[in-house]
Specification:
The complex is a heterodimer. By secondary structure, chain A is α/β, with parallel strands linked by helices. Helix content of chain A is 44%, strand content 14%. Chain A has a single domain, classed as Spore Coat Polysaccharide Biosynthesis Protein SpsA, Chain A, CATH 3.90.550.10. Chain A has a 7-stranded mixed sheet, sandwiched between helices. Chain B has 4 helices and no strands. The chains are: A alpha/beta, B mainly alpha.
Amino acid sequence: MKTIVIIPAYNEEARIGGVIRGIVGLDIGLDIVVVNDGSFDGTCGCAKTEGAAVLNHPINMGYGAALQTGYKYALENGYDIVVQMDGDGQHDPKYIPYMLDASSKEDVDVVIGSRFKQDSGYQAPVLRRLGMIFFGILVTLVTRRKTTDPTSGYQAIRRRVLPFLASEEFPCDYADADLLIMLYYNGFTTAEFPMQMYLNERGKSMHSGIPGNLYYVFKICLSIFLTVVRENLKRGRREKCL
Amino acid sequence: MPLIQKVFFYIVALSIFVLVLNLVRKRQLKESYSWLWIIISVSLFLLISQYSLLTRVSRVLQVTPSIVILFMGVIALLLLVLQLFLINCAQSVQIKNMAQRMALLEEKMDRDRRE
């Protein structure tokens, strides 16, 4: 199966080389594409030196938009499976073969690497952990599937999901817990795979600062609420037609 | 309503209407963004013509007609701002899609050049 690894990256000159080498070192015939999201350091050059294809955004558009560019690339180039991972070294490439295996054996559309499915020793800051628990409960309630890590960006995705992810329905703002709910309502299956992740070396996340975190919580809650309402209205209309 | 006030507001409503049409004529304003302005100027014109309706509404709401006019003015401005936000959102999506398209094409060109 033709597989590609998508790595969104913003100013990851220091780390992107190591991430790519880790994937190449698996030696399982994976293609790699780095989506350079308007970096102003040498991310593009480093990625190209390591042999990855690079998609350069002319402006910084955020993690979600960068992921979507990768999905569009995978769709255009006929890939069967997409693995997405972070470019800052948090995600260990050694889990990729296991995720691909889980995807085919369990016939799952999206395999999500979970830091909390088993005790991996991952220590998130308290507030962030509370947020993850809160959104995990929300997703579990709506999808009726136990979700322990609703914000994990380490995923293996099958081709049939890509048209949905490449569409305007994909939440480019922050594609997290609300995306899992959208996948559920669009008939895609998800499953979690236990893994260990490392804390970002710089200690910075894309949700830095109080305003950033508050907006993130607000946006995800609003998105989840509206997704549930939208989908239930759609179902109601469909039942009326029948 | 005193005649002088009526004439003043008719002139204001007509001026907005003519200004907007002129901007559309000169292609400085697109038709798709002008409709709300046209509705506002026509509504203002009708409001002045049917002043008795305004006094009836203010009696029902137990406020003075000037409060009703102020409130309607605020609503009109909020609608204009909302229209701008909607346009802005649509354009953000277009910019995102264009930037993504550009990145994909640039990579394809690089690949073709290498081959």
